Amino acid sequence: MKGVAFFLLSLFFFLPWNNFHDVQVAQFELSQNKQSLVLKIEVESKDIFRALTGLEDMPLYQQNAEINDYLQRTTQWFINDEPLAICNYTFLVVDGHFLIESRIKNTFSTIKHVFFVNEFLLDEIPDHMNIIHFRLKEQLRSFKMDKSRQKISLVYD
Amino acid sequence: MNAKQILGLVLFSCLFFCCKKELDCCVLPPEPPVDSSSAVDCAEANAISTVGVDCTFPAPDNSNYVETIDGAIRSISCNTVPNHTYGDFRGRFAPFERSFSLPTSPTIAQETTSIFNTNNRSRYFFGVATNGVYFAPAPATPFIFENTQTGEYNWDWVFEASMNKGPEQDQVKLDCANAHSGDQGYHYHGQMFAFAEVLSPGITSGSVPDEPVQVGWAADGFPMVYLYGPDASGNLVKLTASYRLKEGERPGDGISAPCGPYNGKYYNDYEYIANFGELDECNGIERSITINTPSGRQHFPYFYVVTETFPQIGRCFTGSPDDSFL
Is the pTM of this model over 0.90? Predict the structure, then answer.
C-alpha cells in the first residue's frame, strides 16, 4: 500500500503537467475593405509543429496543405449568420512564425453579426490562447479565446 | 459485529440524532441565487505581482549597438541583445535587427505626444537603450483587462507591466532588467536594473554616481538618464516622478471593467499631479544637462529620467518622436 502511494506521489512530481510554461498565443485578424474580407493569422512555428505531429519534417507545400486542413477543422466563421468559406490560404514563414493569409470577396453590403468558432491549438497545447482582432466597420475590437471560450459573437449597429 | 455493521450503526445514529434535533435538517438547502455582479472576486482579479523571473542566462557576447552621426541625424543600428544577464521564460530569446533615427539636436514641441494611440493601443516605443535593447513600457495583448463574459479586451485598462512581473499565468514575466523577449526582440518594460548595474555598479542599491548615467535615447532625440540628474544648481540628485496612485475604488463592475481598489495593476490606476515630484508628465525635465553619450560629450536642454516609481519609463514625448520608433 505504501509503495502504491509513493508511486502515485512520484507521478505527481515527475510527469509533465499543465504549467505556466505552456502559455502560447496565436493572433487572428479579420478586416474588410470594399472588395475583400482579409483574414490574417500569425502563429509561432514551434507551436504548430508541436500540435501537428510530423509537420516539421514535411516540405513546405505539404506543411501548408496540412495547416490548411487543420484550419478548416478548427475554425468556423459566420457573417450575418451565413457560413464563410475561407480557403486558399497563403503561407509565409518569417522569424519563426507562420504568417497565414486569405482574401475572399466581400459580398456583404453591411456586416451586422459575426460569429466565430475557434478551437485552433486548444486541444493540443495546454493553456493556449487565441487573440482575435476584428477591424470591421471602422472599429478595432479584440478578444481573447481559450479553452473556456471557443465561440464569440459580435453585433454591429 | 463486523466493520460494515459498525459503520452502518454510526451513520444511522448520526442521521437519527440530527433529524430528531431539527426535522428539516436532512433536506439540502436550496442553491443560493447567483448574482453575477456580486460573484466577481475583485481581490483575486486585482492581484499584482512584483517579483519577476530569474535571470538565468549570462550576458551574451553578441550584443550590438552602433551609433553614428551624420549632420542632424543620429542613426542607430542594433540587435536587441542585452549586454547583461537575462531571463528567457519561454525560450523565445533571439536577436532582432533594428535601426532607428533621431535628431541630434532635438527641440521641445508645442504639444506632447503619447506613446499610445487614441484607442489606448501602444503606438511608439519610448526609445532605445545604449546597448541596443528598446524601451516598450506599455504592454499589448494579452495584458489588457478582458470582459469576463465576452472576452473582449477593454483598452482603457492596460496592465502596468512593472506591477505584473511574475511567472504566473496572465502575468508579463519580466526578468532582472524588467525585460522579456517578444516577437520583436528583447525589450525593457520598466527600470532596467541589470543594465544600470553594467553602466554604474551599485547604482541600483543606492550608490550615487559622479555624473548622470545615460541609459538610452528617447524617440524624440532627448537623452534618458537613470534615477539621477542635475538639480537647478547643477548638483546630482535623485529626481522623482509626479505620478501617484489614485485613491479609492475603481468604478468598474469587474465584468466589463476592473473593480477593487486602485493598486497599480493598471496604467490607469495612476494620476499625474503637477509638481508632485520634480519631473513633468512625460517623466522628463527642462533643465540643462551635459552627458557622456556613445558619440561623445553632449549638451541638451531637456532630459528624461528612468525613475524608481511609476511610470519608471515615460509614456509621452516632449519633443517629436521619430517614425522609426512606431
Answer: no
Phi first, then psi: give them for residue A133, nearest 5 degrees.
-110, 135
Which region, left, alpha or beta, applies to residue A81 given φ > 0 means left and ψ of -120 to 50 means alpha? left
The predicted-structure confidence for B252-289, as pLDDT tens digits, reads as follows 999 999 999 999 999 999 999 999 999 999 999 999 99
Closest CA to B303 of B316, B277, B284, B278: B284
The CA–CA distances, whole Å, from B289 to B67, B211, B236, B240, B296 equal: 20, 10, 10, 17, 14
Contacts of B184 (CB under 8 A, 6+ apart): B80, B96
Chain A residues touching B87 at Cβ < 8 A: none
State mean pLDDT over B2-6.
Answer: 60
Cell numbers for B134, please give them: 528598446
Note whether B142 contacts A144, CB cutoff 8 Å: yes
**Is B142 in contact with A129 (Cβ distance < 8 A)?**
yes
Contacts of A82 (CB under 8 A, 6+ apart): none
Interface predicted TM-score (ipTM) of this complex, two decimals: 0.78
A139 touches chain B (CB under 8 A): no
